[in-house]
Amino acid sequence: MDGQRSRYPEMAGKVAVVTGGSSGIGLAVAHLLVREGVSVVLASRRRGRAEAALRTFSADAPVSWQPCDVAKPKSVAALIEVVLERHGRLDYAFNNGGSGGATAPIGEMAETDWRRTIDGFLNSVFLCMRHEIPAMIAGGGGVIVNNASVDGLRGYPFPGGAAYAAAKHGVLGLTKSAALEYIRRGVRIVAVCPGWVDTPPVTRAMKAMPDVASEILRQTPRGRIGAPEEIAEGVVWLLSDAGSFAVGTPLVLDGGYMA
Q: Which residues pair with 66 in a beta bridge?
């Protein structure tokens, strides 16, 4: 994929960080950025998965990995420090990584699981932007895309997902507020809201729960879940100059789910 023709020549020579970059949407975004001549730092927790992800690139691709747990402040701070030490600048960020606690209906959810989900999917985005924004301002500007999911726009459609939906609603509020704060300082901040996508967690869930899988497909007018590459194309468009008038707004890519 990283050998294909560039679509956004202005991106060549820039630097990006992609959290949750070892699989799924994050890895697909990394491939498209490399295609555009961007140096990419993948951030994720598991070394084995990261090494497998790096093998999907050509040997000379400008891509590297830095271990990071985006729910931990010191880990995020270290990530951005490494990016600046390695490349001297930060132009693009896709805040995609996240993890949560066990799911349960609100009346049955353990407080620790609630906090783990909010930390993993909402506080993590704050922590990333808290360090990315100053780095971008110091370098003359940049673009941040936050993964907010369609679950930031609606209630979760199955029991047990309220904490995740609350976190993703928060990501949208955070994105819009930060966008207004920083657009005049050269940092453009937007969000992407994917529907159901063929990522490892979704694939595992659909295999384990065929009834849920059939309901997901029934709810998606396109008749199938999305491919990571389909979402990645939208993310890279948002990061590019072609998306320059998108400020604070979510790009919904869901196969008609929210229509």
A: 43
Which of 8, 92, 156, 164 is catalytic? The answer is 164
Residues paired with 42 in a beta bridge: 18, 65
What local confidence, expressed as pLDDT, does residue 25 receive? 97
**How many CB atoms are located within 10 Å of the residue 67 CB?**
15
**Domain encompassing residue 85:** 9-199+227-251
Low-confidence ranges of the chain (pLDDT < 50): 1-2
Closest by Cα among 142, 140, 152, 150 to 176? 152
Looking at the DSSP assignment, which residues form a beta bridge with residue 250?
191
DSSP 8-state class, residue 225: P
156 is catalytic: no
Does 24 reside within a domain?
Answer: yes
Give residue 255's pLDDT.
95
Q: What is the pLDDT of residues 188-216, one digit of tens each?
A: 999 999 999 998 888 888 888 888 889 88
Name the 3-class secondary structure at 133. helix
DSSP secondary structure of 142-204: EEEEEE--GGGTS--SSTT-HHHHHHHHHHHHHHHHHHHHHGGGTEEEEEEEE-SB--HHHHH
pLDDT per residue as tens digits for the range 93-113: 999 999 999 999 999 999 999
Report the domain count for the chain.
Answer: 1
Q: DSSP string spanning 53-70? A: HHTTS-TT-SEEEEE--T
